[in-house]
């Protein structure tokens, strides 16, 4: 059986084959090198388009693997959230989006202007979010008044507030 274009794109993402950029995502012990493809990212986001238009000004060139390619450091983005954002960009896949990562994914989507990802992140029921305080902070940061109000609504006493 032949593969669809979506299957090929998913394969590129999962294998990193032909990647021409690597993202060093995360901070401290949580850093991870994630391969990607500039062409796909540039078509998904005006932020990536601008970033890659002037590579010599915006990225540090290093050996990320056997091939020399661009390495972009992203210490403020969680690796799992970045990978989920890439899954959405490459294959419209949001299967990993949940209350534990929705706000981190929203942060990445806002930072890199992936508007199609905003709604799904905000559609995660507030009571499923792992940390309502972080959700409220993100709502204020991104001027999401309705979402901020949802975060302030009383919760059933059986739910945790994310104070861990």
From TrEMBL:
Coiled coil: none annotated. InterPro entries: BTB/POZ_dom, SKP1/BTB/POZ_sf. Residues 19-95 form the BTB domain. This is BTB domain-containing protein.
């Amino acid at each position: 059986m032949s593969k669809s274009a979506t299957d090929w794109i998913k394969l590129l993402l999962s294998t990193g084959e032909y990647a021409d950029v690597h993202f060093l995502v995360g901070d401290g012990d949580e850093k991870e090198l994630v391969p990607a493809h500039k062409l796909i990212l540039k078509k998904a986001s005006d932020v990536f388009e601008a970033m890659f238009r002037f590579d010599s000004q915006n990225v540090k060139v290093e050996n990320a693997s056997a091939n020399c390619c661009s390495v972009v450091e992203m210490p403020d983005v969680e690796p799992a959230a970045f990978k989920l954002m890439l899954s959405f960009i490459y294959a419209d896949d949001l299967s990993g989006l949940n209350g534990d990562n929705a706000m981190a994914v929203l942060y990445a989507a806002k930072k890199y202007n992936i508007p199609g990802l905003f709604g799904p992140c905000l559609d995660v029921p507030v009571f499923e979010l792992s940390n309502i305080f972080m959700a409220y902070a993100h709502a204020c940061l991104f001027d999401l008044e309705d979402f901020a109000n949802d975060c302030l609504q009383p919760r059933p006493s059986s739910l945790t507030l994310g104070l861990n």
